[in-house]
C-alpha cells in the first residue's frame, strides 16, 4: 500500500480515532480532578481545614491526591501507547513497504 | 528548636559570600563550561545547534525538561510562599504540574513528528509559510521575552542577596556564562546543563526535606501539627485570597495548564529526541520529576516556617524568597547553604540558557532563514545567523534585566503563561487536529490571543490597580486566560471559515502519515 491508501484505510482511521478518544478521556479526567479541586477551594474554604487524620487537613490530602492522579494519568497514557498504539503503528508501517 | 539551629541562625548573614559557597559555585560553573567545551566540538550543523543532533534519549530529555521548567522562582518562590502564606503556596504548586499530562495527551507526539526546530515549523507546515512563521515567531518571542525579563530580575536580586554582589554585575555574570553555554555548545551543552541542574536541584530539595522530616520523626503530620500549633491551622492551612471565585479559579487554571503547551523553550526540547516514542517517554519522566519536586517543596516551606520562623525569614527578604537557603543554613550549616546557593544559581543559568536558545531559534530559523531567505541558506550561514541571534538576545536580556531592576515583575510570568496559552497553544493544537484550519485563521488566532491577553492583563487588578494605581480594574479577573483563549479560538474559527484553503486540507490528509506514524519525520 502507498501512503495515500494507508491514510484512507479503515485501520488507520480507527487508530487515529482511538488515539484521540483515549487522549480526550484522559484530559477530561484531568479537568474534573484539577478544576474540581480549584472550585472546591474557591467555594468552601472551611472544608479545607477539616482534619482527615490528626494534623493532616483535607486541603493537604487533596493537594497530594491531585498531583498523584495527574502523574498516574500520564503513566497510564504511556502504558496504553506503548502496548496498544505503538503495535498498531508498527503494523501499519510494515504495510507501507 | 534546638540550640545548634539557633546558633546557626544567629550567625546567618545575607549578602555575604563565604568561601564554601563560592567554592561550590565555582565547581558548578567550571563543570558546566567543560561540558560546553566538549559539546562545542560536536556542534557544527543547524540540527546539532538547535536539536542536539536529535540524539537525546527520553530519560535525558525528561530531566532536561524538568530542568527547563523548575526555575529558581518555583524553588525559592514557592517554598517562601508556603513558609509565609501556608496553603496558598501549595495551590500554586499544583497548577505548575497539571500542564504536563495535558501536554502528553494533546501535542507531545504529533509535535515531535511534524516539527524540525521550532513550534512554528508545526503551525506553518501545511499553511502558507511566511505569514504564519512571522506571527508564530513573534508570539513565541513575546512569551520568551516576558519570561526572560522575570527570570533576569529575579536572578539579579537573588545573587545580590546570596553573594552580596552588585545587581548589575550579577546580571552581566549570568548573561556571560549563559551565552558561553548557548553560543559554543548549542542545544547539546544546554541540555546537559539542564540535566545537571535538575539532578542537583532534586537532590538538594530531597536532602532539605529529609532534614526537616528528620526533626519530626519522618512523619509529615507532626510537621503540620507543629505549624498549626505555632501559627494556627486557620492561618496556615485555610486557602486565602489566592483563589477567590470559581471563574477566577477556572481562568488561572486554564492559563497554568495550557500555558505550558505554548512555551517555546519547552516545545523545542521535543525536537532533540529521535522519535515520538522518546518524546512520550520524556514527558513521563519530566512529569515524575516535577510532580515529586512540587510534592516535596511544601515540606521545605512549612519546615522553614517552624524551624526558622516567619519573622526571621521576612527580616532577610520581605517576599520570603530566602526561606529555603536560610533553612539550609539552619539545618546543614554553611557547606549546605553553599550547596543550595550554588544550585539556585545553576537553576537561573540553565533556565535563561534554554530561553535564549528558544528566542534565537525563532529569530534566525523562523524569521531570517524561512522568511527573509525563503529557506535558501547554507548550513554554515544558518549556524552563523543562529549565533548572532543568540548574542543579540543575550545582550538584550542583560540590558532589560538592568532596566527593570526596581520593577515588580511577578506579573510578567503570568503574562508569559497567558500569552502562551492564548496565542501559541490554540494555533498549535488546531494545526494538528483541525482539517479546515487556514492561514487566515492561524494568523488571526495568534494575533487575537496575544493582543487580548496583553490588554486584559494591563486592565486587570494586578496592573491597573496594583501597579498604575487606579481605583477600580476595568477587567475584573487577575488572569485573562478564560477570555483570551476563547477569543483566540473564535478568531481561528472565523478566519478559517471565511478564507478556506482546499489545498491545505488536502495536505492535512497527506501529512497524517507523518503525524500519527512518524513516517518522514525529521
Automatic annotation (TrEMBL), chain A:
GO cellular component: plasma membrane
Keywords tagged on the record: Membrane, Transmembrane, Transmembrane helix
Domain of life: Bacteria
Keyword Phosphoprotein included in the entry's annotation: no
Transmembrane segments: 21-40, 60-80
Pfam families assigned to the protein according to its UniProt record, in alphabetical order: DUF485
Protein name: DUF485 domain-containing protein
UniProtKB/TrEMBL annotation, chain B:
Cell location: Cell membrane
Membrane topology per record: Multi-pass membrane protein
PROSITE patterns: NA_SOLUT_SYMP_2 (PS00457), NA_SOLUT_SYMP_3 (PS50283)
GO cellular component, one term: plasma membrane
Pfam family, one: SSF
Membrane-spanning intervals of the chain: 20-40, 61-84, 90-111, 132-152, 172-192, 199-218, 249-271, 283-308, 336-364, 385-404, 410-430, 442-469, 481-499
Keywords: Cell membrane, Ion transport, Membrane, Sodium, Symport, Transmembrane, Transmembrane helix, Transport
An MF annotation (GO) of this entry: symporter activity
Entry's Gene Ontology BP terms: monoatomic ion transport; plasma membrane acetate transport
Top-rank lineage group of the source organism: Bacteria
Principal cellular location given in the protein's record: membrane
NCBIfam families attached to this UniProt entry: sss
PANTHER family the UniProt entry points to: CATION_ACETATE SYMPORTER ACTP (PTHR48086:SF6), SODIUM/PROLINE SYMPORTER-RELATED (PTHR48086)
Similarity comment: Belongs to the sodium:solute symporter (SSF) (TC 2.A.21) family.
Protein name: Cation/acetate symporter ActP
Species per Swiss-Prot/TrEMBL record: Geovibrio thiophilus
Gene that this sequence comes from: actP
Amino acid at each position: 500500500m502507498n501512503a495515500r491508501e494507508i491514510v484512507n484505510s479503515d485501520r488507520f482511521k480507527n487508530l487515529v480515532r482511538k488515539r484521540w478518544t483515549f487522549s480526550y478521556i484522559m484530559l477530561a479526567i484531568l479537568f474534573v480532578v484539577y478544576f474540581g479541586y480549584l472550585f472546591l477551594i474557591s467555594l468552601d474554604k472551611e472544608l479545607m481545614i477539616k482534619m482527615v487524620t490528626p494534623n493532616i487537613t483535607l486541603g493537604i490530602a487533596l493537594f497530594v491526591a491531585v498531583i498523584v492522579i495527574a502523574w498516574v494519568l500520564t503513566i497510564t497514557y504511556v502504558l496504553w501507547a506503548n502496548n496498544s498504539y505503538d503495535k498498531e503503528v508498527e503494523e501499519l508501517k510494515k504495510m507501507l513497504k | 528548636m534546638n540550640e545548634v539551629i539557633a546558633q546557626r541562625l544567629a550567625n546567618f548573614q545575607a549578602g555575604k559570600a563565604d568561601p564554601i559557597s563560592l567554592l561550590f559555585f565555582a565547581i558548578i560553573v567550571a563543570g558546566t563550561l567543560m561540558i560546553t567545551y566538549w559539546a562545542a566540538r560536536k556542534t557544527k550543523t543547524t540540527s546539532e545547534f538547535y536539536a542536539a543532533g536529535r540524539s537525546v534519549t527520553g530519560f535525558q530529555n525528561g530531566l532536561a525538561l524538568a530542568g527547563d521548567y523548575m526555575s529558581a522562582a518555583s524553588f525559592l518562590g514557592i517554598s517562601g510562599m508556603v513558609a509565609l502564606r501556608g496553603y496558598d503556596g501549595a495551590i500554586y504548586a499544583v497548577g505548575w504540574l497539571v500542564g504536563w499530562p495535558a501536554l502528553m495527551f494533546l501535542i507531545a507526539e504529533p509535535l515531535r513528528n511534524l516539527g524540525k526546530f521550532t513550534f512554528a515549523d508545526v503551525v506553518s507546515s501545511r499553511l502558507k509559510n511566511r505569514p504564519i512563521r512571522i506571527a508564530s515567531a513573534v508570539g513565541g518571542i513575546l512569551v520568551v521575552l516576558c519570561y526572560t525579563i522575570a527570570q533576569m530580575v529575579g536572578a539579579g536580586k537573588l545573587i545580590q542577596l546570596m553573594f552580596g554582589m552588585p545587581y548589575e554585575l550579577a546580571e552581566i555574570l549570568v548573561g556571560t556564562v549563559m551565552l558561553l553555554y548557548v553560543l559554543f555548545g548549542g542545544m547539546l551543552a544546554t541540555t546537559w546543563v539542564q540535566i545537571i541542574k535538575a539532578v542537583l536541584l532534586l537532590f538538594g530539595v530531597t536532602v532539605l526535606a529529609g532534614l526537616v522530616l528528620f526533626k519530626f520523626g519522618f512523619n509529615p503530620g507532626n510537621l503540620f501539627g507543629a505549624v498549626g500549633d505555632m501559627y494556627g491551622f486557620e492561618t496556615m492551612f485555610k486557602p486565602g485570597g489566592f483563589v477567590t471565585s470559581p471563574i477566577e479559579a477556572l481562568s488561572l487554571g486554564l492559563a497554568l495548564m495550557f500555558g505550558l503547551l505554548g512555551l517555546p523553550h519547552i516545545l523545542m526540547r521535543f525536537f532533540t529526541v529521535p522519535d515520538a516514542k522518546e518524546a512520550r517517554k520524556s514527558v513521563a519522566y519530566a512529569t515524575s520529576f516535577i510532580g515529586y519536586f512540587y510534592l516535596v517543596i511544601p515540606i521545605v516551606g512549612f519546615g522553614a516556617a517552624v524551624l526558622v520562623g516567619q519573622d526571621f525569614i521576612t527580616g532577610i527578604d520581605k517576599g520570603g524568597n530566602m526561606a529555603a537557603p536560610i533553612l539550609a543554613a539552619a539545618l546543614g550549616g554553611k557547606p549546605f547553604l553553599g550547596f543550595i546557593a550554588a544550585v539556585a544559581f545553576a537553576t537561573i543559568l540553565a533556565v535563561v540558557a534554554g530561553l535564549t536558545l528558544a528566542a534565537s531559534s525563532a529569530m534566525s530559523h523562523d524569521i531570517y532563514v524561512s522568511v527573509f531567505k525563503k529557506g535558501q541558506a547554507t548550513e554554515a550561514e544558518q549556524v552563523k545567523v543562529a549565533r548572532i541571534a543568540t548574542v543579540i538576545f543575550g545582550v538584550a536580556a542583560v540590558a532589560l534585566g538592568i532596566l527593570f531592576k526596581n520593577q515588580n515583575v511577578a506579573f510578567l510570568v503570568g503574562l508569559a503563561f497567558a500569552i502562551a496559552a492564548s496565542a501559541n497553544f490554540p494555533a498549535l493544537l488546531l494545526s494538528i487536529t483541525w482539517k479546515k484550519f487556514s492561514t487566515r485563521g492561524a494568523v488571526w488566532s495568534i494575533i487575537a490571543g496575544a493582543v487580548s491577553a496583553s490588554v486584559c492583563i494591563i486592565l486587570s487588578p494586578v496592573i491597573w490597580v496594583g501597579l498604575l494605581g487606579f481605583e477600580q480594574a476595568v477587567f475584573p479577573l487577575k488572569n485573562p486566560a478564560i477570555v483570551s483563549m476563547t477569543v483566540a479560538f473564535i478568531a481561528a474559527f472565523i478566519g478559517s471559515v471565511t478564507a478556506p484553503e482546499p489545498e491545505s486540507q488536502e495536505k492535512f490528509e497527506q501529512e497524517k502519515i507523518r503525524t500519527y506514524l512518524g513516517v518522514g519525520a525529521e
